[in-house]
Amino acid sequence: QVQLVESGGGLVQAGGSLRLSCAASGRSFSSYPVGWFRQDPGKEREFVAAIRGSGGITLYADSAKGRFTISRDNAKKTMYLQMNSLKPEDTAVYYCALGRMVAGFLSPDSYNYDYWGQGTQVTVSS
Questions:
Q1: Cβ atoms 15, 40 nearer than 8 A
Q2: 27 pLDDT exceeds 80?
Q3: Quick one: which of 57, 56, 58, 77 has its CA closest to 48?
Q4: Cα–Cα distance, 52 to 45 (Å, whole number)
Q5: Percentage of residues in the chain with pLDDT exceeding 90?
Q6: Which end of the chain has fewer CB atoms within 10 angstroms, the N or the C?
Q7: How would you classify the pairing of strands 120-125 and 10-13?
C-alpha cells in the first residue's frame, strides 16, 4: 500500500506563489511516475503535471506550462509542485497521485494513477 500526504496549500493573492509538497510512504517511490491534479467543486478532476519515476521527464497541462514546476526527491520520497504567477482560476483542491507509465509515456489521465492523497486547498484571491 501507498499513502500520500499533501501539504502547502493556502490562501494567496493573484500573482503570488505557493509550493505544494506530497510525502509518500509504503512501496518503492522512485519506480513510479507521480502527478498533480486539481478539482474545483462541480467540475471534473483536472490534470496539472506529472514526472517520471527517475525524474527528468515531465508533462504539463497547458494551463500550467511556464508557471508551475513539478519535481521530486526520491531519497525523501517527496514530490513538489512550485506554483508561480497564480491566478484566481487556479483555485481548487490539489491532489498528488502515484501512477504508472503508459506505453513508456507519462499519462494525464486520472485512471492511470492508483494512489491518491487527501488533497490540499489552494485559494487565489483577485
A1: no
A2: no
A3: 58
A4: 21
A5: 86
A6: N
A7: parallel
C-alpha span between 101 and 8 (Å, rounded) = 27
Q: Is 120 helix (H, G, I), strand (E, B) or coil?
A: strand
Cα 4-53-114 angle, rounded to 5 deg = 45
What's the pLDDT tens digit per position in 30-54? 899 999 999 998 899 999 999 999 9
Dihedral sign for Cα 69, 37, 62, 54, please.
positive
Please give the span between the terminal C-alpha atoms of the chain, in angstroms, as a whole number.
40
Average pLDDT, the chain: 95
**Encoded amino acid at 75, one letter:** A
Q: Measure the CA–CA gap between 1 and 42, rounded to whole angstroms.
A: 30
| CA separation, residue 26 to residues 14, 35, 75, 84 (Å) | 36, 17, 13, 31
The grid coordinates of residue 114 equal 492508483
In this predicted model, what pLDDT tens digit does every residue of 54-96 receive, in sequence order? 988 999 999 999 999 999 999 999 999 999 999 999 999 999 9
